[in-house]
Amino acid sequence: MCGIVGIAGPKPCADQILDSLKRLEYRGYDSAGIATLHAGEFSIVRSAGKLANLDRMVRESPLPGTVGIGHTRWATHGRPSEQNAHPHRYQDCVVVHNGIIENFNALKKELAGQGHTFSSETDSEIIAHLVHREYTRCRDFSEAVRGALARLSGSFAVAVLHKEHPDTIVAARRMSPLVVGLGAGENYVASDAPALLSCTRDFVFLDDGEMAVVTSAQVSLSKIADGAPVQRAAKHVSWSPAMAEKGGYKHFMLKEIHEQPRAVSDTVRPRLGLSEGAILLEELEPLAERLSKVERVCVIACGTSFHAGMVGKWFIESMARVPCDVEVASEFRYRDPLLGPGHLVVAVSQSGETADTLAAAQEAKKKGAAVVTICNVVDSSLPRMADAAIYTYAGPEIGVASTKAFTCQMAVFYLLALYLAQGRGKLTAGEVRKLMEEFAELPSRMETVLAGGPHVLEVAKKYVRASSMLYLGRGLSFPIALEGALKAKELSYIHAEGYPAGEMKHGPIALVDDAVPNVFVIPPGVTYEKTLSNIQEIRSRNGRVVVVTSPGQKGALDVADDAFLVPDSSPALQPFLSVLPLQLFAYHLADQKGTDVDQPRNLAKSVTVE
Q1: Whether 605 is catalytic
Q2: Quick one: pLDDT at residue 32?
Q3: What is the mean pLDDT of residues 266-277?
Q4: Closest residue by Cα to residue 311 from 176, 423, 401, 412
Q5: Which of 2, 302, 375, 408 is catalytic?
Q6: The domains spanning 3-242 and 451-593 adopt the same CATH topology
Q7: N or C: which end of the chain has fewer CB within 10 A?
Q8: Fold of 451-593
């Protein structure tokens, strides 16, 4: 949630820290700050609100110093304010922190009893106090940080400066993401690689319980617990800085919606063995024998990834003929789930750092289940702890509301279902080849849908004043209805609910009147006529209806006030097409209302604390 940046180099660093913090805005924040160290003195600037406020303050009073740290804060302990913004200082020590210190009240009471006074309401400030106290005892910067962190219960990613070590940043993590960037005569730390793409593409990803001592000349890693050295090769990230820029689009989200055909193609094409009639998932080969005997699959995820998992359940059960459950990760981890060696757990997270999903996956692994993750960020926490990782190749997703990560996750589920089906002998090579050939055509069909964006805008203008909406669908269209409703909620702050259309008469129909638009996802298929009957019931109660359907579905088009058309396709591919106009609809509703599309209020891109 919070964003951390640190730079140790040969030139003034404040402007680069500010630029990198802007690249972390997608994580969500309500205040920000920068601290630099020069000639034995700290310069600290902090402000509540958007980074524009901090930018203006830095322009008015430039910060000297070639070593510095910066932070965007998401409030947990203490209201959003300049007083509670990071960095926090206590005497000779400055710290930025992402996470939650669960025992901070006890530690604060202990420190206050020793004469410490506090200038904020945050849990983070106590870290600076603890490091200062430890340093007065040992006079060793990294050991002081190590000793301070040993007292903390909870999660943290930290970066620390000390006045007596003007060329050094000490950084560490436990259950919150942190990466080290390697440059030429300059090294960096950050919460996420996109923050540093303009500086470097070579990264070392810290594991839980690790510390990095970073100077302009070198980086050394060790275990927090005992100081044991850690050796780890750097990873080269192929994302370019341009991939994290808007590229002429008004918002990152709009750019990312239009990147979906490319992202799905990049994710799928290298894994389609058309000549062999086989799915090529080399990542799973070490588990191949075990997966061929899997008795049950359990998908764990949160938010949009949960909806992708619901689609994945349909793929896995229909193609591989394996029972599949889909669980909200935050609920799964607390109910002692029934898992064992015969089970496969698929943990889904765009960032690979979602706290609930990570903890649920760890619980599954303890119980002996095979754990495979679907993730977009190389070497993030979930891939490192899982037995295998299948990466989506969506590129950096900056908009808080997920779009291209969602379609890429569904694409990986399609591949996984085919892989399990072929490994279990449920589909022949010819059948797999036919399904792969059909999937290879999908990106061009997605392009066709996205070309209808201007029409979606005109429809959105009609409904921009709605305060409540219903989204309904059956079968594979139900999770797409849920996802459409979630996007409307996230972006435009409209109360929107997704329901199975067959459940409409079990409650939601009570909401129907001429002020509540009803969005139906109604592709051709076995439930088409039944969903059409649901629409007729809405129309008889003066409800307004928007349908997502294909051009030949005259029944749906005749009863709808407005329609978003998508090409005909097989049932398995319909979700990839139907979700696109719903993403655009939510985007245009929000843009017409003037909300902050890329950074909706109260939301963060990566939920790294419970």
Answers
A1: yes
A2: 93
A3: 84
A4: 412
A5: 2
A6: no
A7: C
A8: Rossmann fold (3.40.50)
